[in-house]
Specification:
Chain A contains 17 helices and two strands. By secondary structure, chain A is mainly α. A two-stranded antiparallel ribbon of chain A has the order 1-2. In chain A, helix 2 packs across helix 6. The model of chain A has no long low-confidence stretch (mean pLDDT 92). Chain B is of the alpha/beta class. In chain B, the strands form three sheets. Chain B has a five-stranded parallel beta sheet with strand order 6-5-7-8-9, sandwiched between helices. A two-stranded antiparallel sheet of chain B has the order 1-2. Chain B has a two-stranded antiparallel sheet with strand order 3-4. In chain B, strand 5, helix 2 and strand 6 form a beta-alpha-beta unit. In chain B, helix 2 runs parallel beside helix 13 and helix 8 crosses helix 10. Chain B starts with 9 loop residues before the first helix and ends in a 23-residue tail after the last helix. Classes of the chains: A mainly alpha, B alpha/beta. The interface between A and B is medium-sized, with 21 and 22 residues.
């Protein structure tokens, strides 16, 4: 089943009606379990294809049960290593010998996200952060939750369990807000990301060696700059839909995006882009590494640079997690390198200008606009290793040549600086228009009109083009 | 989605639905306005004179008009001194020049395409290139000349002393002929078309649903929407097949209604062929398939029970029975790499790309008959019959 699709929405609506027929916890748990299993089953008709997936889930359940609340620390460590190894092996990472792989096709839909959830359960359970023993039904509903199975967001078990036991209210306003979220998400995926994808494909097809320099620069800039915007609408649209749908099951999923392109540097950006992934890595990679580093390196001159190295490792892992090929290794190096360089810059500037002076510099409107543009440009060019392969990157580089490539960086930087600054100004202006003490654009009347327009546009777009919405990019991870 | 939303008030209960409705209306009106601006249409022919004759109208001699389908380009209609859509004079032809007369309805008349792209013009140009002497076209056809009106038109065509009369028909023309409410056509009428017999227009009461459906049918935004929707055969074909009677000609055995239409058409062809034979002029019946038939070939999706060959076969049998030459344009259109572009998707008429193809194919057919007025014409016209894809 494709998410988001009309079929998915109908499926979710029917399931939500049945789910809300009774307030009894066993009823809701049972309905959710049936729905989750039904959703998972829609991805393959071959029962054998589910065996590795279910085996991994069973392993996770038994592992977290066996090492609860600090018990058996050595076994715990071994299980963590084994779990990571099982993930790498089942995902067929390229550095693992091919001969060891299972020879038949098996289902791995949303497997990375399931891995994050299971590993989090194992660690938190061992550290005593989960008060009660995790029941099997609760475990399955948490790991296989159909709203988050495909591409997250990665929810903490504690939050999920709290909503299982405490009944979140679901009034008319809540339902309206949830529908609003679904509509916005569907529009982002089915209309905006589809259109942006078409623009990028056209630019790719248009790019050729016979073009004039100006045309080359425009095509190159479009190829580089459109993809991150497309990815944002594609992934955040999916997230909006599942957050809205989950609300009907009285589950509040965590946010995954918070206007990431308004970030002034790479560290802030990753706090606003795929937030649940960076949050997970902050908790289970960054924080432990920082604590280790600070406990081992006590020299004051070096201590302030610990975060540079730890950030590099954390965000390198984010990059590498996305794929199994050498392109993703480079993507990881660039992502980690960007964040680490930014941290190094901040540390150096604070030493040079003193914290107060650096804060004053960073608060300037021109400086903010330029850093936003710079951050976008960096992200856009690192994405080349995310969406293309070496062959494509080589072709693009050869076609553009050094002059056009250099101009492309400049054009993307200038254009994104101006556009993002304009958008920030327009947003500020719109939010400043208030009525009755609240921004006019946030009133339910304006939002109703806006949503109706989105629905009409999305329906017309889907019907007229008769083209399915592009698949969710993060479904592949 | 920020902050805690306030509860709904009584005012919201009616105001929010009203806002939804108003937004939809504004968007629909906006879409219609945009469609009217960017997809203009002019279907009224300013050269048409409603004359109260049995034909209902004629074209003003030496008149020029501009028309446009929403889906197509602007084009010009030029009428000669007889009111025929022809660049050549309707006066007797000079020695050595051959003449072909076209009768029929919209497609015969080159409706919605530029003169150079009509079937008739393309036929004339192709035959001129293939024969030893020029071929002139007099096009007496026009949108609205359906059914037995062509008997009157045939008499007029024969007075031009043509070497052949061509009658182009589509399933839609054959379907529409049942609406023909002409009185019996006598020899006296055929001698000189009456100019005083006024036809009484039927005044029908129009219900609300019919009015609403009329508004939707006339909506330019709907035309634009359909244009994009119909570009995909997998969308267009099921929608067309859902038309019921209109699509039933594709599914043999034919329904009683279609059988009666074919019987009526048989009578019409008998009458036309008889007129032509009495004047010793070959009569050519050309079948142009419905775009749905071509779309089925393009989309490789043929609904169960559909046989696109059944209808032209029935027409061919009628033509042979009455001694007319039958030409089926289906084959040439079916072989094109982009068949969807051969028709205006919503309007349904062959486009400026489809009509010349039919004309060239017809020329080849006539030239290769081996006998008749074009016996001396040989060869083929580039682009008429592309090789079949293997």
């Amino acid at each position: 089943m494709t998410v988001p699709s009309v079929l998915f929405l109908i499926f979710a609506l029917c399931a939500a009606v049945v789910f809300n027929l009774s307030v009894a916890k066993p009823w809701r748990q049972a309905v959710l379990l049936v729905v989750n299993i039904g959703f998972l089953a829609s991805f393959s008709h071959d029962p054998v294809a589910f065996i590795p997936f279910l085996g991994f889930l069973a392993f996770g359940f038994l592992a977290q049960g066996a090492t609860r609340e600090g018990g058996r620390p050595r076994l715990f460590l071994a299980l963590v290593v084994l779990m990571v190894a099982a993930f790498v092996w089942l995902k067929r990472y390229s550095f693992v010998p091919k001969e060891t792989f299972l020879a038949y096709p098996y289902l791995l839909i949303g497997f990375s996200y399931v891995f994050f959830r299971v590993l989090h359960l194992l660690i938190d359970s061992h550290q005593g952060a989960i008060e009660r023993k995790v029941g099997l039904v609760s475990y399955l509903n948490y790991t296989l939750n159909f709203t988050t199975l495909i591409s997250g967001p990665i929810q903490r078990y504690q939050d999920f369990h709290r909503m299982e036991t405490e009944r979140l209210p679901l009034g008319l306003v809540d339902m309206g807000t949830a529908v609003e979220r679904v509509v916005i998400g569907y529009f982002k995926v089915a209309v905006v990301s589809l259109a942006l994808s078409a623009v990028q494909h056209q630019a790719l097809q248009h790019l050729g060696p016979s073009l004039f320099l100006t045309d080359k620069v425009i095509s190159g800039a479009l190829i580089a700059a459109v993809y991150p915007v497309y990815l944002y609408f594609n992934f955040s649209g999916y997230t909006d839909v599942v957050i809205g749908v989950a609300r009907f099951f009285r589950i509040e999923l965590p946010e995954n995006f918070n206007r990431p392109f308004s970030s002034e540097n790479a560290i802030i950006f990753w706090g606003r882009w795929h937030m649940t992934l960076s949050g997970w890595l902050r908790t289970y990679v960054y924080n432990p590494l920082m604590m280790q580093g600070m406990s081992r390196i006590t020299a004051p001159g070096l201590a302030r640079y610990i975060s540079v190295g730890v950030l590099f490792v954390t965000f390198f892992l984010i990059g590498v997690w996305h794929g199994r090929t050498s392109e993703f290794l480079v993507f990881g190096l660039l992502t980690g390198g960007g964040v680490a360089t930014n941290q190094l810059y901040q540390v150096t500037m604070q030493q040079w200008l003193k914290p107060k002076g650096y804060r004053a510099l960073a608060a300037g409107a021109f400086y903010k606009a330029c850093t936003r543009g710079l951050n976008f440009t960096w992200f856009a060019f690192t994405q080349l290793w995310f969406w293309s392969n070496w062959q494509q990157i080589g072709d693009i580089a050869r076609t553009l040549g050094p002059a056009a490539a250099a101009l492309d960086v400049l054009v993307v930087f200038l254009a994104s600086t101006i556009i993002l600054a304009t958008m920030a100004a327009v947003r500020g202006g719109l939010l400043s228009l208030s009525w009755g003490g609240a921004p006019v654009v946030m009133s339910r009347y304006v939002r109703t009109a806006w949503l109706t327009a989105l629905v009409v546009t999305a329906v017309s777009f889907t019907l007229l083009l008769n083209a399915p919405a592009p698949d969710i990019v993060y479904k592949a991870f | 989605m920020s902050g805690i939303p306030s509860p709904l008030t009584f005012r919201d209960a009616w105001l929010l639905p009203l806002i939804c409705l108003a937004t939809v209306l504004i968007m629909l009106i906006g879409a219609e306005a945009a469609a009217q601006v960017f997809w203009p249409e002019e279907k009224d022919n300013s050269c048409v004179v409603h004359d109260g004759t049995l034909l209902g109208f004629h074209h003003r001699p030496h008149c020029v008009s501009r028309m446009k389908a929403a889906e197509g380009p602007w084009y010009t209609n030029r009428y000669n001194e007889c009111g025929y859509r022809s660049m050549a004079s309707c006066a007797p032809v000079p020695p050595g020049v051959r003449r072909i007369a076209f009768i029929g309805a919209s497609i015969s008349g080159g409706h919605l395409v530029e003169y150079e792209h009509t079937i008739a013009t393309s036929l004339g140009q192709s035959l001129t290139a293939m024969c030893t002497a020029p071929v002139q076209i007099q096009n007496l056809a026009a949108a609205g000349y359906t059914g037995r009106k062509n008997i009157i038109r045939m008499a007029e065509a024969l007075r031009l002393h043509p070497q052949a009369v061509v009658f182009v028909q589509t399933p839609v023309d054959i379907e529409n002929q049942l609406d023909d409410t002409l009185p019996p056509i006598t020899d006296a009428i055929l001698a000189v078309p009456p100019k005083t017999a006024v036809r009484v227009k039927k005044i029908r009461k129009v219900g609300l649903i019919q009015q609403a459906s009329g508004i939707i049918r006339e909506s330019r935004a709907v035309v634009v929407a359909q244009h994009f929707m119909f570009s995909d055969p997998s969308v267009y074909i099921p929608l067309f097949m859902a038309n019921g009677d209109k699509a039933a000609f594709l599914k043999p055995p034919f329904t009683p209604l279609w059988q009666s239409r074919l019987a009526r058409f048989d009578e019409l062809i008998a009458a036309l062929a008889d007129q032509a034979h009495r004047a010793n002029v070959p009569f050519v019946l050309v079948f142009v398939p419905h775009q749905a038939e071509i779309a089925m070939e393009a989309g490789a999706t043929r609904p169960p029970g559909v046989d696109p060959l059944a209808f032209p076969k029935a027409l061919e049998a009628i033509a042979i029975r009455h001694g007319a030459v039958f030409v089926d344009a289906s084959e040439i259109l079916r072989r094109q790499p982009d068949p969807a572009s051969l028709y205006y998707r919503v309007d349904g008429h062959p486009s400026g790309k489809g009509q010349p193809m039919i004309g060239r194919s017809l020329a080849e057919h006539l030239a290769n008959l081996g006998s008749g007025p074009f016996f001396d014409c040989h060869g083929s016209v580039a682009g008429a019959l592309p090789p079949k894809a293997s």
